[in-house]
Structure formats: C-alpha cells, structure tokens
Design brief:
Layout (H helix, E strand, L loop, with lengths): L1 H35 L4 H6 L8 H12 L5 H33 L5 H13 L2 H14 L7 H8 L2 H14 L2 H9 L4 H12 L1 H17 L2 H6 L8 H10 L16 H21 L1 H9 L6
C-alpha cells in the first residue's frame, strides 16, 4: 500500500513538472510580447525583459503603428475582417447543408462525396494554392477580394464536423415525424435540424474564422499590392521596415521592435475576442456527437 501511494505521488509529481514546463514554455514568450508593447526601443533592449514599461511608451507605439504608411495597418485589419467574415458566411451557407445532406439524406454519389471530403481534408492548403491561382487567373480574379474569399470558403473540415454531428446527435425519428407532418426536406432542415445544430454551427464558424484570419500564404500569392493585404501579410511589411531585422530599412518609415510587438498583439486580438465571446458554444460544439441515439 505504501509503494502504491509512493507511485501515485511520483506520477502526479512527474505530470505536474511536465505540465509546468509546457506552461512556462508557452507563457513566457506571450508575457514578454505583451510587456514589450509598453516599452521604448531602448528600454526593450537594455531593461529587464519582464519589467513592465509605461503608458506613455504604449501610446507612442500605438501612434507609430497606426501612422505607418499613412494608416496602412487600419486598412489591413479591415481587409482581414472582410476576407474572414465573407468566407465565413459562404462556408456556413454551403458547408452546414452539405454536412446535413451527407449525414441524413440518401442520394446517388453520397459515399463518393464523403470519401472525397475526407481526402481533401488530408491535402495541405498550401498544395492547393498554385492550381487555385491558375484557375482564378483564367477568370481574371487575381488581385480582387474574391480571389481570397472564394478559396477560403472551401472548408471540408467544417463539412465533416457537421456530418459527424448530424449523424450522431439528431434522431432520425424526429426528422421522419416532421416529414409525416408535411414538412418538405428544406423545412425539415431549417426548422428542425438547424435549430438543434447551433453548437456545431458555432464550432464550424469559429474554426473557419480563425483559419481565415490567420491565413498568410493564400493572400500573399493572390494579392499583388499592399492595399489589399490582410493583417497577417501586412506584418511582413512591418517586419521588412524594422531595422533589427532589415538594417537597410532605417529611415523615416522604420518600425521599432516594440511597435512590431504591438502589431502582433493587435493582429491576434480579434481571434481572442471571438474565442472569449463564443467559448460557451465552442464547449458545447466540441462535446456534440459524443452520444448516440
């Protein structure tokens, strides 16, 4: 009995040490990044890396960030919102009904479509950028918002999540009863299945928004000018204007490290806000489909 207690204590100690190491590994850079936004360029280099700065330096960094290239950062954030929300709307309009159809209706080619959905999920997104670029170039959409929104709207993972939810969490007898009562298939979906699927809709919406907001390579390839850049691609312009990373950029439009750190925080902030607002729905969506009828 003593050895069992010792073994249990040793196991908890090892788990605690490992988890603490992982927390510190991820938390220390985040804490440093947040504190860096409150410092001057000199204070960031010569001062204590984990000592907070001042509101004056934070305000100066904020002004320097949003005055960069005559307010380009504001335009980049607006572009990110346009691309992410536009693609999200199309994803929900197309993906949720697709998952419902694959799960709860019978039609020719259903299994083939499901297999194709699973296969496409395994293909890296970057591998699809070149063929998508050539396709959109033929129809003359390169450089337009649609060249980013339309490819981002293709979200097979969301279709598969919806398929799993409808397959395991919606009683077929309930849908059959609605059909007996005279509901058409469209009404069965919109008035019965969709209201019950609010958690999975929220989960798909969150994953889609995060993927769209953080997408870098696709907008970088599709948009030839900085006017259409989203925030993630715009950060490369700020990085190129930072003398610490690019010594040739020293000049009137140069960006200091604290300003670059603030830009990183600002670019991540919308995702954090969306996560905090939708956390309750995300938990419900992640546990959806855990039980069978």
């Amino acid at each position: 009995m003593t050895s069992a207690k010792l073994s249990g204590w040793s196991g908890r100690t090892i788990v605690t040490v490992v988890l603490t190491a992982f927390v510190l590994f991820f938390a220390i850079p985040i804490v440093w990044l947040l504190l860096a936004t409150t410092k001057s360029a000199r204070g960031l280099i010569v001062g204590n890396p984990f000592a907070p700065g001042g509101l004056g330096d934070l305000s100066a960094n904020w002004s320097a960030l949003f005055s960069f290239q005559d307010g380009a950062v504001t335009g980049w954030i607006g572009n990110s919102a346009l691309y992410a929300i536009g693609a999200l709307v199309i994803t929900l309009i197309a993906g949720i009904p697709a998952g419902y159809a694959l799960a709860l209706t019978e039609f020719r080619g259903r299994r083939l479509l499901l297999v194709l959905t699973l296969i496409v999920m395994l293909i890296p997104n970057t591998a699809l950028v070149l063929p998508i670029f050539l396709e959109l170039n033929v129809v003359g959409l390169i450089g337009s918002p649609l060249s980013v929104i339309l490819p981002m709207s293709f979200f097979p993972f969301g279709v598969y999540l919806t398929y799993i939810y409808f397959s395991t969490s919606i009683p077929r007898d309930l849908l059959a009863a609605a059909r007996i009562d005279g509901c058409r298939e469209y009404q069965v979906f919109t008035k019965v299945a969709l209201p019950l699927a609010a958690p999975i809709v929220a989960l798909v919406a969150f994953f889609s928004f995060v993927q769209n907001w953080n997408n870098f390579f696709l907008p970088f390839v599709m948009l030839p000018t900085s006017d259409g850049y989203p925030a993630q691609v715009g950060l490369t312009s700020l990085l190129a204007s930072t003398p610490a990373f690019n010594p040739s950029s020293a000049g009137a439009q140069s960006v200091q490290l604290p300003t670059l750190a603030l830009a990183t925080v600002v670019s991540v902030l919308p995702v954090l806000i969306v996560f905090l607002v939708s956390q309750r729905f995300l938990v419900a969506g992640m546990t959806a489909g855990g039980t069978k009828e």
